[in-house]
Every structure is written in C-alpha cells, then in structure tokens.
C-alpha cells in the first residue's frame, strides 16, 4: 500500500514540477500520422491479445498450483504455512519435478 501511495505522490510532484512535459508525454499518440497511428493501434492490440491469450491463463495456473501447495502444507503441518515454508516447499517440489 505504501508503494502505491509513494508512486502516486511522486507522479503528482513530477506533473506539478513539469506540467508541459507531462502533457506532451501523455498525448504523444495524438501527434502520429495515419501510418504511425495504425502501427500504434496494432502493437497495443497485439500486446492486449498476448496478455489475454498467454499471460492470464499462465497466472491462473500458477495460482492453482500455489493453492494446492498451501493445501498440501496445511495437511502436513496442521497449521497455516509461513511464506518461507511455502517457498521452500515449492522449491523442493520443482527440484523433484525437473
């Protein structure tokens, strides 16, 4: 939470200190010609597609694996595992799979 507040505070200070630069940085796609705008749209569309097609399913799979590891450790330990125990368990599990 502190990192988010610090980031927003830094952004506020930079925008207040350099308002013209901030406006130019925010609105640079508006100065593109038609070909540049088409490339900009195509690249952003490809990035969005890649995120939805590959990254989101990968992260969902990793979440399922993490929950499974937590469940296994809960059964073994009889309590909620700490982050260190969870990390060590995942490391041992990954070494066993390789």
Number of helices: 4
Tell me the β content: under 5%
Biggest β-sheet description = none
Termini, distance in Å? 36 Å
Measured as a percent range, the helix fraction is: over 70%
Structure commentary:
The protein has 4 helices and no strands. With 98 residues, the protein is mainly α. The chain has 2 domains: 1-31; 33-98. Helix 1 crosses helix 2 (19-26) and helix 3 packs across helix 4. The longest helix is centred in the middle third of the chain and has 44 residues, at 34-77. The protein starts with a helix and ends with a helix. The mean pLDDT is 89.
Sequence-ordered SSE layout with sheet pairings:
Layout: H1 2-17, H2 19-26, H3 34-77, H4 83-97
Helix pairs in contact: 1-2, 3-4
How would you describe this structure in keywords?
single chain; 98 residues; 4 helices
Summarize the structure.
By secondary structure, the chain is mostly helical.
